[in-house]
């Protein structure tokens, strides 16, 4: 029978950037047929290069979603340095967003998706 030996594992490099270091980005907002939408751009758009666009899940925003952890992952740094990353916040989900006025009709999922071309046009 084979004996088990305890192995000490040490990390040579951390998997994630420390949470105290904010991921730099420039905040923007653009008017769409369905209202104002906020988004944050990380990096510089490059000609003939696609962008990585994220859109968070219900009740979250770009900061409090899986994308923050994903883009802090060290192996992703090699990927994201070659692309511009655009994190879209659904209306009213961005940090510091005001409350919706009484009677506000929140956009449908199709309308939320229709906001994306407005962002892309804004970014050229």
TrEMBL record:
User: Looking at the record's lineage, which domain of life comes first?
Assistant: Eukaryota
What Pfam families would the database entry show?
Ndr (PF03096)
InterPro entries recorded = AB_hydrolase_fold, NDRG
Please report which protein family the annotation says this sequence is part of: Belongs to the NDRG family.
Instruction: Name it.
Output: Protein NDRG2
Q: State the organism named in the record.
A: Chelonoidis abingdonii
